[in-house]
Design brief:
This protein is mainly alpha-helical. It is built from twelve helices and no strands.
Length: 189
């Protein structure tokens, strides 16, 4: 990589990390840093997000409507079919609101994995709490999810729960890498 390319890559990484930092969990920021440092960061995604940041933001009313739509999608994610959810998420304006688009993209990714979540529940057998927790975290707002992660880390790392978490995390990492990627930093704790 030439120096100019390195500078652009660093600029894109910093733009992503510092844009709307309140909506990102510390774990996702650390994970993104690791990916950047190991050269695995998809610069095209970051450049696309940087371009969106330069676009005109939504009006206050449009933003509230978009947030309400996202809240509905989060709340009923598992009730909608994947195509129904995509139709709803397609209504979200793509211009000027990278934080909302990031949330919409996450809901799309999670929805696309719904059958893998079913398979994971079968694979984990009686340890379905971990699957239910992952599904819940995927649908919470970033702020609420961060709080829930903190609470779960404390409770799951005590006593017999720790062994179940470690074993479940290993199964998810090895057999369900797409689901693992959604909460990788948390599962690695």
């Amino acid at each position: 990589m030439n120096p100019e390319s390195n500078a652009n890559s660093l600029k894109n990484y910093l733009t992503y990390t510092l844009s709307d930092i309140d909506s990102k969990s510390p774990f996702s920021i650390i994970q993104r840093r690791r990916q950047f440092l190991h050269g695995q960061l998809e610069t095209a995604v970051i450049e696309n997000q940087s371009e969106r940041m330069q676009e005109k933001p939504l009006s206050a009313i449009q933003r509230i409507q978009t947030l309400q739509l996202l809240q509905e999608c989060r709340k009923d994610l598992w009730k909608y079919s994947h195509s129904e959810l995509n139709q709803l998420l397609d209504q979200i304006p793509k211009a000027g609101e990278p934080d909302l688009q990031i949330l919409a993209d996450k809901l799309r990714r999670v929805s696309a994995l719904r059958f893998q979540f079913d398979e994971l529940a079968k694979r984990l057998g009686e340890r379905t709490y971990l699957v239910e927790l992952l599904q819940s975290l995927a649908t919470l707002s970033p702020k609420d999810a961060a709080g829930r992660r903190e609470a779960e880390i404390r409770s799951l790392h005590q006593g017999p729960n720790r062994a179940a978490l470690t074993e479940g995390s290993k199964i998810i990492r090895l057999e369900f890498p797409d689901i693992y990627q959604i909460e990788a930093s948390w599962l690695d704790e």
